[in-house]
Structures are given as C-alpha cells and as structure tokens.
Design goal:
Blueprint: H1 15-27, H2 33-48, H3 58-65, H4 73-92, H5 119-130, H6 141-155, H7 159-163, E1 170-171, E2 176-179, E3 188-191, H8 194-207, H9 227-241, H10 255-271, H11 276-287, H12 292-305, H13 307-317
Antiparallel strand pairs: 1-2, 2-3
C-alpha cells in the first residue's frame, strides 16, 4: 500500500499548511490523490510568484484560479473548489487568506443518466460471460469473466475493488469479501450468496492453489487487470446483447452494474414489504458509501424507472428521495 505521507512535500511558505490540510482530509477517509496533484501545481505557482509568507493573497489566487485554455469546466471547478477549502483552512489556523466566493465556481451540468439494466439484460450479460471463448494467450479469461461480472452485479462492487481482490480477501467458507482501502479509505465486509460461493469455490479449484497475497482474478502477467481491458470486454458483451453504446462517457458503463445492483436490491426489498427507509443505512454500508446521500439517489432512480410505484414510493419515502433540480 503506498505511503501517502512520503508524497506530501511542498516548498512554498504555505506548503506546511497544504500538507496538514491533505493529511486531515485523508484521516477523514478521503484519498485526495487528484487534489494532491493540483495542490502541487498551486505550490509551484506560489513559489514562482515569489510568495514569501504563509498567506494566500487575493491577487495571487485570482491569477491561479483563472481558467486555462486546455482546462475542462469540471477541472476548473475542482481547482477553484479545492482552493476555496484550503483558504478557509488557512484562515482557521490564523493566517491571512482570500476566500473565493461560491459564485465563482463555474456551473457544470452533466446529462449522463445511469443505465439500469433489466433482469433479462443482466441474464444475457452473464450468458455472454459464460460463453467467452478460451484464448491461449489469456488462458484464465474463460473462467474469470463469468465470476468477475457476477461479483460486479451481485455484490455491487466498484470495478477497482473487484480487480484488486486478493485470495486472502475472499472467504469461501463464510461467503464474505473483504474490501480493503476503498474509495473513502476504509475496509468493509461484503457477504455474498451461497450460489455465488459455490461458483467461486469451483473457480478457485480451476485456478489452483495461490498465495493469500495473489490477485484473485489475475491478468496474464499475474497482477490485476487494467479496468480498460474489462471495459472493452464489457463493450463486446453489449454488442452481443444488441444494446447500443453512446460512446466514451455516454454509457452504458461498467459502473452501471453497481447502480443496477442497488436499484434491484431496493425493488426486491420493496416487494417484500421491507421498510426501505430503515434499509438505506444497510445498503449504504454494504456499498461503502460515506453517507446516505449517495444511497438515497437510488430511491429516486427506483421511482423514476417504475412509474407504477412512483406515487407509493413518494408517499412512503418522499422525505428521503432527493429531487432533481432544474437549472
């Protein structure tokens, strides 16, 4: 596991405060990798501008926050937002800093909508995985892909979590995955069904004895697959289904299997008469969400995808279903 502390070296007068800010964020569970890279750029900028005291003057920050020609609106917004949070941190520690107003944050609007697959589409996906052709160059492709895609859908994992599972993380006796150092820096346990347990035991038998540190779904070189490799295989499965792909960034995406898991789980609970409001914290913990806001979005998706249930869901859970805002 990489040691984040080794990378927190800054040279401007504000550098020690930047390092402290990142460490506090990481202690709260945020990885702060992209932000750390951006803070390095800010640190170099402050050095180049000749800053000689621990402060964030307005003129320097305004020049730093100006949009660059090659910069996307999303990256620009991230840069301004992180600068604002750092400035607030600096002032809280007794140093002068200009805090950019919130209206300076450029508005970004995404038209992307999660693709929730039907149960029949999931069945066809898994059938496509089951019939993947063996390849001499990738001998484990055929046994790996059916189980990898079943884990993505049945357990709602992020693709990075599934690809970095190690043999010691998969308890084939208890039927539990240990997901280590997830998106928010916390470990979690993910139980899976007896059916999947049986399949994974059979898969482990095919692969043979491996050390606890070995990757559970190894690429030909023995390490973890690159997510782009799995994405390309996913695209082939979509073609097999006859499901159109909107191109890069327009989905369907691998991550939509995680969204589909959540919506299908909520629908199953609803049909069983379970109190969804009480189950949201369970789902949030299972999926590794930092708080309930991300999980509540799935209630909205459930209501939108099943209009016949919309009014009933709104009556029962309207207080926890987030509303789309018009911009």
């Amino acid at each position: 596991m990489p040691n984040h502390r080794d990378t927190l070296t800054f040279h401007s007068p504000v550098g020690p405060l930047i390092a402290q800010f990142i460490e506090e964020k990481r202690a709260c569970g945020y990885k702060y990798c992209t932000e750390s890279h951006l803070f390095r750029r800010l640190d170099r900028f402050l050095c180049a501008e000749g800053l000689n005291e621990p402060a964030l003057p307005r003129d320097l920050l305004e020049r730093w926050m100006a949009k660059q020609s090659h910069e996307s609106a999303t990256t620009h917004r991230l840069r301004i937002g992180m600068t604002r949070r750092l400035a607030m941190f600096v002032t809280c520690h007794g140093y002068p800093a200009y805090i950019p107003a919130t209206h300076l944050l450029p508005r970004t609007r995404s038209n992307f909508v999660a693709r929730i697959f039907t149960h029949d589409e999931v069945r066809r996906l898994l059938e496509a995985a089951d019939h993947i052709r063996p390849d001499a160059r990738t001998p484990l492709h055929a046994p790996i892909m059916p189980e990898l895609f079943r884990i993505l859908y049945s357990c709602g994992l992020r693709i990075s979590e599934a690809l970095h599972l190690r043999v010691g993380d998969v308890d084939l006796e208890a039927g539990v995955l240990t997901i280590r150092q997830t998106k928010f820096g916390k470990d979690r346990f993910v139980p899976f069904t007896s059916t999947l347990t049986g399949r994974l035991r059979q898969y482990a038998h095919v692969v043979g004895q491996q050390s606890c540190d070995a990757i559970f779904f190894p690429a030909p070189h023995g390490g973890a697959y690159h997510r782009l490799t799995i994405y390309n295989i996913f695209r082939e499965f979509l073609w097999t289904w006859g499901i159109a792909h909107g191109g890069r960034g327009h989905g369907p995406r691998l991550h939509d299997l995680r969204h589909t898991f959540a919506v299908h789980r909520l629908m199953q609970w609803y049909r069983e008469g379970v109190d969804l409001g009480a189950k949201l914290p369970v789902l949030a913990t299972y999926m590794g969400h930092l708080n309930l806001s991300g999980t509540q979005r799935y209630l909205q998706l459930t209501a939108e995808l099943f209009p016949e249930l919309s009014s009933r869901l709104d009556t029962l859970y309207g207080n926890v279903i987030p509303r789309r805002t018009q911009t």
